[in-house]
Design a protein that fits this description.
- By secondary structure, the protein is an alpha+beta fold.
- A hairpin with a 2-residue loop joins strand 1 and strand 2.
- The longest helix is centred in the N-terminal third of the chain and has 18 residues.
- The protein is 28% helix and 43% strand.
- It has a 4-stranded antiparallel sheet with strand order 1-2-3-4.
Length: 122
């Protein structure tokens, strides 16, 4: 099982910050399991068909979000995370690749639940 994204040390996390981190954890788990439905559950605007096509090209994938900095402002939140993506393709070069990544998430709280609006990964 993949560990939840880590957070900078803080005396106590605000409930909204914890909830945002939990959403990011579910995102990490969905992409690590190649599960487009689970990704859609936390990122409703994601193109599920395109995600299915991308996941179909992979034998395995693991996202590891670390060092997440979360800023909450009312019902909006931004999160920046560093980490890595490890993956192996089904066709072609089947070697396991690990790449450093940086993610920026924009989230919104809807009906008491934090959901991802946008993801930029590099």
């Amino acid at each position: 099982m993949v560990a939840p994204p880590s957070v900078p040390s803080a005396p106590a996390l605000a409930p909204d910050t914890r909830a945002v981190l939990l959403t990011l954890y579910h995102y990490q788990e969905a992409f690590s399991a190649l599960d487009s439905n689970a990704a859609h559950a936390v990122w409703p605007s994601v193109d599920v068909k395109a995600l299915d096509r991308a996941f179909d090209q992979l034998e395995q994938q693991t996202f590891n979000l670390q060092g997440c900095n979360v800023t909450v402002s009312g019902t909006r939140a931004d999160a920046s995370c560093t980490g890595s993506a490890t993956y192996a393709r089904k066709v072609g070069n089947k070697a396991v690749h690990e790449e450093p990544r940086q993610w920026h998430f924009t989230l919104q709280q809807r009906a008491g639940q934090w959901l991802i609006d946008r993801v930029d990964a590099r």
